[in-house]
Write a structure and sequence with these properties.
The protein is an all-alpha fold. The chain is built from two helices and no strands.
Amino acid sequence: MTKKNANDTSLKYVRMKNESEFSDLQWKTLDEPKIPKRSILIAFLLFVMGTILLTVGVLLFTNTWFDVKYHDRTWPVIVIGCILFIPGAYHVRLAYYAYKGYKGYKFDDIPDYDDE
């Protein structure tokens, strides 16, 4: 049986001699983070659709653009706009900060819905 070295990166599991030992594998980071493109696209669409619905809701509320007969649709449009805007803006902000490399933000914070 061949004895494996703790510094061998092909291993997924290395048994340590003592509990107090450290291995270089513990401190190894991924070379390039996986960017969840599909999740960022969905977040951007939520952000844009929420912004549009909030704008339409405010215009309905103030009666500046639309006729008074559509005033009953004001609150549902504003509520749905908020439901879309808040998570979209949050995840777009996370993606932007991770892209810019701000401390404490990384692409792992964004949920990945890809089946790959």
